[in-house]
Amino acid sequence: MNQEEIAIEVKDITKKFKIYYDKGSQLKEKLLFRKRSRYEERLVLKGISFKVKKGEAIGLIGHNGCGKSTTLKLLTKIMYPDSGSIIMNGRVSSLIELGAGFHPDMSGRENIYTNAAIFGLTKKEIDSRLNDIISFSELEQFIDNPVRTYSSGMYMRLAFSVAINVDADILLIDEILGVGDANFQAKCFNKLREIKANGTTIVIVSHSLGQIEQICERSIWIHDGLIRAEGKPKDIDLEYLEFMGQKLQENTEKELAEKSQNSEDNNDSEKEADDNNASSDSDEDSKLKNRWGNGNARITSIRAFSENGMEQRVFKTGEDIKINVEYAVKQKVDDAVFGIGIFNLNGVQCYGTNTHIDKFDMFSLEKNGCATVVLKNVSLLPGEYIIDIAIESGDGIPIDYFKEAYRIEMISSVGDVGITRIEHEWQI
Description:
The protein is α/β, with parallel strands linked by helices and 428 residues long. 30% of the residues lie in helices and 33% in strands. The chain has two domains: 54-235, Rossmann fold; 293-427, abc- transporter (atp binding component) like domain (Coagulation Factor XIII, Chain A, domain 1), CATH 2.70.50. Helix 6 links the parallel strand 6 and strand 7 (201-205). Mean pLDDT is 82; it is low at 269-287 and 415-420.
């Protein structure tokens, strides 16, 4: 990679923190109870290295405490590494702690000026962007009210609007893409795509793998302070989901074993045996090609139907498509989530959604059934598409992630219609 093409270069960075057991807050406490100042040093990053090309979007994924958010804060220079180096080429805008520079007694308009100045904009530059910032935030009627009167959603909207309108060369984002309602979230995604198309380098930290897959060309999986894997988001995300599913299964089996040892009831012992058998079955299932998850529920059939109810795999651009997903339940799944992703043959995600994003009423899977999603006016370009189907629990643990579960083909005499948003409806 040519040095002139590099926007971010991270070389072997390490970072440790002091974790105090019981630190006194007052001088008297510190003098009288010196032992309370004991601490341990925790090495959060153990030597991370990666490069990001100009105009590239990458996602940092991993479990809580793995070091991904620390990495992002080091990139923003909120903190500095203990060793190693970080080179950032260009103006940086960060969406890490939204509105960190906002003053509650100042109006929204005044806070735009102070917050944008923090990002390095001159007053003249802010003047030229002011109307765009206010319009994007959709807070025109509240913009001259004190920020302390804003709801948390309004506060985040304004901060997001400022951060993405500073024309930064590098944009750093940490778990903030849940801003506002569904329509505003869609607008944020479209804005990020526009920013990326204009050549901005983007680094995203998120637990929402769907967000990563829709925006990024590359995922970096950080595990216990080291890079465990990196590559195409679709591939790395599935490796991560499989790993998390296995960890959940191990914890579940451990809990079951402890219950079995402490139980003297024969019926309970028989139930534990059944659960262990189910675990064994799910282990076998997880080894199947393109399938990940703990197997508490399994997708058994996928069928696609046209508007007139005919089962088919070939559709015209602009048609409605009804997709039925039949499933079998081995063990109750609380707070279940169904998801769908549509990819072209190059692995680029064209569309994706799930029942959690759509704020579908919370539900559990207790018996075999069928979930249906109706995709309306599907404006996909002519060609073949791959569909992934997933069942997860509400905390993001995969129950059955079925990669390349189904294929459809779109045909049309229309030119490049593109795709922005497909209206859809879930039926569970």
